[in-house]
Amino acid sequence: MGFGTGWSSNDAIFQELNKFIERYEDLQFASDLVFASSCAASVVLVLAFVGLYCNPSRYDLRSLGFFEGTISTVLAVSCLVQFALFMFWQQSRYVVLACAFMGAMIGNIQAFIIYPFFNAFYRLELIAYMNFGETLTSMTSGVLALAQSPTVGVENFSVQTYFTILFGLTCMAASAWASLVWQTGFRRDADEVDSPQDLSDEEDDHPERK
Predict the structure, then answer these.
(1) Alpha-carbon radius of gyration of the chain
(2) How far is CA 78 from CA 48, 109, 173, 193, 197, in A?
(3) Which terminus of the chain has a lower count of CB atoms within 10 Å, N or C?
(4) Best CA proximity match to 107, nearest among 145, 131, 67, 134
(5) Where is this region: Disordered (predicted)?
């Protein structure tokens, strides 16, 4: 699951940066990718602050339903990004820029939303598996890129094949998350989950605060 919610999309895009520069004949494309990724980080920070702390809709964004829905949405978008890359990366530079933006949003959502609340609803051993999956994102992208072009002028398989492999791995990550629906032992029991109301009640009852 960590493979799909991590930085797999951005790692893959930057590993293929030379191919994009050759295709679009623009050395500035690298800075455009960095700018798109930075904008995504800013958007996630603003949305996280407004949604979790200001909460204009008055919807409980710290509930299990919202948390699991966020992960499911992130995994679906991650699969869509990889699909768009292997199908349309040659069509327009804006396709790659849009995928870089969405990929950076996925990585930042994991850092600012998924990780902080994961421990609240799932047991600690599952976090280790998610961390391992996220670590695989950079390693897999790098190993595939090295296998694709081990030396200058050698290309063992195309960019489309590269993104196709990552698309398959991302779909596997989404399937792993979906399998938790019928697996037991990973989700915390209801009496183990502290709601925001429970935490505020504990603070009110603390003797040092009276």
Answers:
(1) 20
(2) 19, 12, 10, 29, 33
(3) C
(4) 134
(5) 191-210
What tens digit of pLDDT does each residue of 12-58 get?
899 999 889 988 888 889 999 999 999 998 898 888 777 767 766 66
Ordered by start, the domain boundaries in the chain are 2-209
Q: What single-letter amino acid sits at 97? A: L
Q: Are the C-beta atoms of residues 13 and 29 closer than 8 Å to each other?
A: no
Find, among 98, 77, 96, the residue nearest to 88 by Cα: 96
Residue range 132-159, pLDDT digits in tens? 877 888 788 889 999 998 887 788 999 9
What global pTM score does this model have? 0.78
Phi and psi for 36 in degrees, rounded to 5?
-65, -40
Longest dimension (CA), the chain: 72
Instruction: Provide CB contacts within 8 A for 38, sequence distance 6+.
Output: 104
